[in-house]
Sequence to fold (927 residues):
Amino acid sequence: MVALSPAVTGAPAPRRRRVRVWRGFVLGVAGAYFLIPLYAGLRFSFQDDAGHWSFYAVAAIPSQVGFSGAFFLSIKLALTTLALTLVLMVPTTIYIHLHLPRLRRMLEFVTVLPIVIPPIVLILGVLRAAPLWLKASPYLLSLMYVILSMPFVYRSLDAGISAIDLRTLVEASRSLGASGPQTLWRVILPNLRAGILSASVLTLALVLGEFTMASLDLWTTLPVWIYQFQQTDGHIATAVSMLSLIGTWLLITVMVSLDRSESRRSRRKAEVA
Amino acid sequence: MSQQNGSRSTEGARVELQELVRVFGRTRALDGFSLDVEPGELVALLGPSGCGKTTALRALAGFEPVDSGRVLVDGTDVVRVSPQDRDMGMVFQSYSLFPNMSAVTNVAFGLRMRGVRAGARRAKAHEILELVGLEEHGEKYPHQLSGGQQQRVALARAIAIEPRVLLLDEPLSALDAKVRTGLRDQIRQLQQRLAITTVFVTHDQEEALSMADRVCVMRDGRGQQTATPAELYSRPTSAFVAHFVGVSSRVPATRDNGTVVLWGRGVPVRNPELTSREIDAVLRPEDVTISADGTGSGAVVHKSFLGATTRVTVLVEGVEVRVDVRSDQASDLSHGDRVAISVVARDVLISPRGEEDVLEDV
Amino acid sequence: MAIPGAARRTLRWRGLRRVTAVAPFIVYAFLGLGIPILAVVDYAFRNPQGHLTLANVSTVTHGTYLLGFENSILLAAITSVVPGLLGLSLAYAIATSRSPFLRRLIATASGVLANFGGINLTFMFIATLGSTGILTSWLSVVHLNPWNLGFNLYSFYGVAFVYLYFQVPLMVLVITPALGALRPSWREAAANLGATSWRYWRYVGLPVLFPSVLGGMLLLFGSAFAAYATAQTLTAGTVTLAPIQIGNLLTGNAISGQENIGYAIGFGMFVVLAVTMILYGLIQRRASKWLR
Fold:
């Protein structure tokens, strides 16, 4: 019967038409609001003053003062943050789900705090409380980005774990003779792939776009550099900004398609079986 | 809301579905479906998934537009009338109680929509809740009620508006077996007491046979046979109905000068109008008898104990036939025993050979 | 029967293992969240010499700093209610559409856009609605140049308009699951009992959605109240908002020796957020009576 009962109720035709008109209006306005600025940003980056499409701004990026330093600083921060986040959050989340379910609420509460506490206030406290040697290092930012990414990372992992029956998987693996580490490596992690992947992408996107903490900690990461550079050349600054956006989106698209092809493959396997 | 005021009879309304057609893309969910329901009658629509029974019910309620055909209630075509003006009470498969309202507010909702004053509608709602045995639970919210209780509230909500027709869409399928039988009797009693014309959709033959005045077996968007439960069981008009309602075996038969021959003996036929050359006989377990006989043509392959009778599966000429035997006699038979088999039915239903009637969910 | 001593030892061993397994996370969260929060609260009540004082708190509840709080609260209120309603409509338009492609597209796009903000967003909007932006020039053609009509992208309302860009997708993300929980059969049951579409929403749809909508708007409020990067890059720190004032005090755009004022503003932001949460809790209790 499922196929025969569509979600939209079979009300008389006028109401349906009204709904369709209303939906078209909402989607149209939303589309314009979200797409026009994108188009404007791209045009501003990739057109010269005469209005011709050109990549002069893009070609000029690498030679700009300070660009490569900012770029590599951002990359370094992104990778260290990612490594730290995964090492900290993945085992903790799995362990709490498996052995300490009562602590789940605590975990949920702690990981939602970074959403509630404004980053600007958090960095204020950090700058006062952190020891001098740490304040002198850009990696203080990585340490804080781990905190900022917690809400997304925890949610992705939690969703991944809830989607599989973790406990049964572990019990099955142990009863077949696998040790704890073997179970983690060969059973749990492969099944959490999608969750870990989405957590990673969200973390990378967050670090590459973060401005508040970096600017107040006085480190010239990529977004801070772009902000400072706009006084020198607005076109080039915008071009860098748009490219970093496109890069982030590509990253997300790759993740989504990887995930989808994975699930398609397993579905095919299931069909064969 | 109620252009039919005054015409409402205590007897319930007469419902006629005429040649309904509803097409979804390539599937014809309703393919010229017709059904008459007498005032106060309970008719069950029975059939496998995808046979169109739910579409038929939703078309009657007004949720599903029809591509052609007429829906008559007391002789008036209601196809153009929107659902909220049709005055039909519906009980849904998933308890569709409004989660933000207590049981009594849920029951009073339809009255509220009809402009009944607060005091009057509360009184009425309590009265109806009492009718379904839930007077104690009026102030509870849906999630505080069990599945069976929720479905009784849903029933109360549907009858509170004194509908011209009551529609039940698999109302019991989400409940566990024990609650289901109890609620089945309760619905039937209430329906008879209030004499509401009722259409009931189910895929459970036991439910249909035990509750309905008449059962309409559907397949591929059409009615196959509409009859009383007893007639449907004992005199199915097609192999599909025989197979879907109760248990039956298909056995190849041959024609010999106008008589149908089964296991070397001519048998009377219920539907002699069927002229196909290649035919099968469709046999109920009680249409056949067996006796232990070392030279018999059949061999016992399986026994399953049902209580007073035992269902014995016999392999005859490469075909499995199910036979009901009194359990004390069956105890003498064991796996591999040879038996003689013969037809004892008054007449036998025949069907074209190879007609597709095997269903996944039967 | 296990030997009691051994059993106790196993238990103690297991307890120890549990503590060590979650200890890194707890220590990290304490160092990265707990200590900074305590530091903010502590310094809010000290003068530059380190003595306890109420002067900072008194300063930030008057004059320009009070205005900063007022503007921030107003901005957060506007950019939680308006995008909340817009996001709800958009999510509903998607939820009722039959195109799975559209749904997937919007789900992915919302995930990306909700985490959008800062410099990229600023550039896009300058290119769109700046004094020489493309939308500005399109509208000028029909004599509707927004700048001539009193619009200023680098003002309070300009910031609010730009915030829609991440607030609406955030609401879509939060509210879509709640819309999915609205069962089609409720709508049918309501129609069946004689309710028009409007009455279905009035009595069933909106009351059922209300707790989720409220929760979503709370999230939007927090997100807008905390936002710094977008407002800072768009207005170069000229709009009077609490986070911007913190930034100015910290980066030395203000008289030195006033750093502790920044901490007092931070503390004030905690208070505003706490009050909002309490209000939310009270409304939620009433609105979701039927959930308990």
